[in-house]
Amino acid sequence: MATTLSPRLERLDSPLRAAVADGPDGYCGVAPDEHWAEEVRRLLALRGATLLAHNYQLPEIQDIADHVGDSLALSRIAASAPEETIVFCGVHFMAETAKILSPDKAVLLPDERAGCSLADSITADELRAWREEHPDAVVVSYVNTTAQVKALTDICCTSSNAVEVVASIPADRTVLFLPDQFLGAHVRRETGRQNLHVWAGECHVHAGINGEELAAQARRNPHAELFVHPECGCATSALYLAGEGAVPKERVKILSTGGMLDAARELGAARATLSRSVLVATEVGMLHQLRNAAPEVDFQPVNDRASCQYMKRINAAALIRCLADGLDEVFVEPDIADRARASVSRMIEIGNPGSGE
Ligand code: SF4
């Protein structure tokens, strides 16, 4: 990843820049107080930049952002925004996706070391070898993949449209689904498709939210609804618990992060509902948005240790360094970006671009 500055990204003076240090878990040394918030807004205005934050970011980063959302929604906002500089508070593949959809804009990721264990589950070379084993297969990739993997993909998908994308492929065509095994299992269950091969990748954060914890929490909170992200190791357990009658089926909702927010708003608006508490199975950053969307509902994590250390690298100090120094700029080779964009566009043509992580 290059760190050469675009001509439009010259360094800016900031009184907070000198306090930024580089520690073992990323940049540190700046507190997210009012003075910091004012300085962030000043630097953004000087750069003419817009600030986007993923749902899993720290609360202070979400609160200062111009837009908060899932990775695909934010990438589409980046493309339609009037600003020429995008500051993307998320992880690397997300900033890459924004760059793919906005090739002429400068896209900054406040710490280029913010990776993703799921996107790293499969490399372009591994996908090339898998395709050679199944030369007639259609490759469907979740958006949590690198630009190189998207460039070798026929159709991208998100967690809310994965079933629809796979269902649009003729039944006699073999499908290679990657990289998430839990989302793949969900798609196989929903479509009943036997010619669907699933890559054995996983996100370490979501895989750590397991069925045992979910079952124990469901027993302790018999009236709570369950919001489960399909990347979770417990998605299968949630459906199993519902099938066994341990949790009423209508209380289990398998939802993308965008779907969780919609469901939270509905629950908050339905004053007559019995259930005022929800167990949430996804990364804990999501709770901040859910609680903002429906303050009257009690949202609790299934696993309060499910925190993504890559997302949390984007903190107050990283944001000051990014805005003052004009770093880290994300680049994608034009031919890779063209092919990756085609796989995202095919998904949008199928309809319901939906939302992913
Ligand atoms: S929570 Fe998992 S899938 Fe999401 S960015 Fe972190 S490592 Fe990747």
UniProtKB/TrEMBL annotation:
For this UniProt entry, the molecular function terms from Gene Ontology, in alphabetical order, are: 4 iron, 4 sulfur cluster binding; metal ion binding; quinolinate synthetase A activity
Sorted keywords for this record are: 4Fe-4S, Cytoplasm, Iron, Iron-sulfur, Metal-binding, Pyridine nucleotide biosynthesis, Transferase
Query: What pathway is it annotated to?
Result: Cofactor biosynthesis; NAD(+) biosynthesis; quinolinate from iminoaspartate: step 1/1
Gene Ontology CC: cytosol
EC number assigned by the record: 2.5.1.72
Which InterPro entries does this one have?
NadA (IPR003473), NadA_sf (IPR036094)
Give the source species: Segniliparus rotundus (strain ATCC BAA-972 / CDC 1076 / CIP 108378 / DSM 44985 / JCM 13578)
EC class:
transferase
Q: What is this protein called?
A: Quinolinate synthase
- Is Transmembrane helix one of the keywords? no
Lineage, top-rank taxon, reads Bacteria
* Cofactor dependency: [4Fe-4S] cluster
> An example of a Gene Ontology BP annotation on this entry?
'de novo' NAD+ biosynthetic process from L-aspartate
User: Where, by residue number, does the polypeptide cross the bilayer?
Assistant: none
